[in-house]
Q: What sequence folds into this?
């Protein structure tokens, strides 16, 4: 296994991408989704970000944990680590939940949610809609999400105070680029 980049190196890669892409974009005159697509591509291309999350998860949780994942990032994370983390329960839901185009049904995992704690792992946390939808479904099944792990946090200005306390992130755009939120 290759050596995982340090937290400082991973954060610097995001900052460099922001700086390079930001210079090409005339200071926020672009749609933010285009901007964050660049960050998402960096994260998906570089498995060091997934390795960072895997390391956090295995250090902070025993193996009796449901790992809830969604979309392309979730598929990649699962394919990279499911064999290695064989005592963890990987639960992959469809992507595009935040868009309201994907419906989820987690009924077949009801017993898993009752027996084990669950964590949510994703590349980003912006509006929180993906997390909220999944959390609501798990609560219907008498489960709960105890922790959220993401690579970056990019909350909307009005939502920053409502970020769940159980969220851990490598990179927080609100703190690292406060001028963006003025």
A:
């Amino acid at each position: 296994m290759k050596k995982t980049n340090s937290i400082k190196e991973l954060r610097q890669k995001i900052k460099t991408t922001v700086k390079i892409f930001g210079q090409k974009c005339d200071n926020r005159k672009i749609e933010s989704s285009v901007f964050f697509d660049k960050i998402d591509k960096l994260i998906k291309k570089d498995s060091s970000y997934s390795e960072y999350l895997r390391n956090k998860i295995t250090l902070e949780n025993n193996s009796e944990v449901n790992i809830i994942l969604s979309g392309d990032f979730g598929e990649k994370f699962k394919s990279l680590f499911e064999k290695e983390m064989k005592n963890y329960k990987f639960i992959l839901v469809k992507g595009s939940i935040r868009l309201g185009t994907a419906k989820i049904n987690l009924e077949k995992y009801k017993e898993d949610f009752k027996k084990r704690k669950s964590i949510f792992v994703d590349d980003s946390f912006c509006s929180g809609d993906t997390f909220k939808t999944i959390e609501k479904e798990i609560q219907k099944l008498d489960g709960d999400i105890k922790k959220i792990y993401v690579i970056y946090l990019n909350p909307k200005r009005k939502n920053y105070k409502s970020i769940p306390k159980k969220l851990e992130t490598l990179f927080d755009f609100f703190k690292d680029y406060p001028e963006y939120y003025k």
